[in-house]
Amino acid sequence: MEYFKSNGLGLNMTNNSKFSHLFLSLTVTVSSLTGLLLPLSGVAEQWVRVKTDNNNNSYYIDVSTIEGKGRFRYFWSNVIYGEPYRWDNKLVYSTSYYISVDCSTKLYRVRFEQLLDAQGKSIQDLNYGDNGRSGITEPGSPEDASLLFVCEN
C-alpha cells in the first residue's frame, strides 16, 4: 500500500499554499452561494463541477492541483452543501479535501479536510496525513465521479 505514504503534497503546506487553497475554496463557495461566476483571472476556471447529488450538494475538483501520473494521483476537492450543517455550533457551507487515489484499484485516502463557513473562512482544519479515512467509492456516487474525473485527467 505504498500509495498511502505521504508524498509531501498538501500535508506540509506552506502558508502561501494554504492561503492559495483557501482563496480558491472561497471562490468556489462564494460563486456557488451567490450563483455568480466571479471573473477572477486564472482562478475560477480551475474548479470543475463533476456532479451535483439529490441533496443539491455540488462536488468540484481543482484541476490545477491534480498531481501524479500512472496509478497514483493527489488532488483538492470541494463539496458545497445544498443545506449547511452544524459543526461545533457553527454552520459548515462547504468542505475542502486533499485526497490521494490509486486509479487502478479506485482506493482513496482523505489526507486533509477543511470545514468552511459561508465566507469561505476555515472553521476546522483536520490534517490526517497517512491516517485519514480510506475506502472505495460506490459506483455512480459523486465521490466516484470525482475519482473517475481525476484518474482520466
Can you tell me about this structure?
This protein is α+β, with helices and mostly antiparallel strands. It has two helices and seven strands. The chain has a single domain, classed as Surface-adhesin protein E (Lipocalin, Beta Barrel). A hairpin with a 5-residue loop joins β1 and β2. The relative contact order is 0.19.
CATH architecture: Beta Barrel
- Poorly predicted residue ranges: 1-45
Q: Please report the first level of CATH classification, the CATH class.
A: Mainly Beta
Distance between the termini: 23 Å
- Helix content percent band: 10-25%
- Strand segment tally: 7
> What name does the CATH topology carry?
Lipocalin
Shape: globular
Short description:
With 153 residues, the chain is α+β, with helices and mostly antiparallel strands. The chain has helices spanning 15-34, 142-152; strands at 47-52, 58-62, 72-87, 90-102, 107-116, 122-127, 134-136. The protein has one domain: Lipocalin (Beta Barrel).
Keywords:
Lipocalin; 7-stranded antiparallel sheet; 153 residues; alpha+beta
Strand and helix layout:
Layout: H1 15-34, E1 47-52, E2 58-62, E3 72-87, E4 90-102, E5 107-116, E6 122-127, E7 134-136, H2 142-152
Antiparallel strand pairs: 1-2, 2-3, 3-4, 4-5, 5-6, 5-7
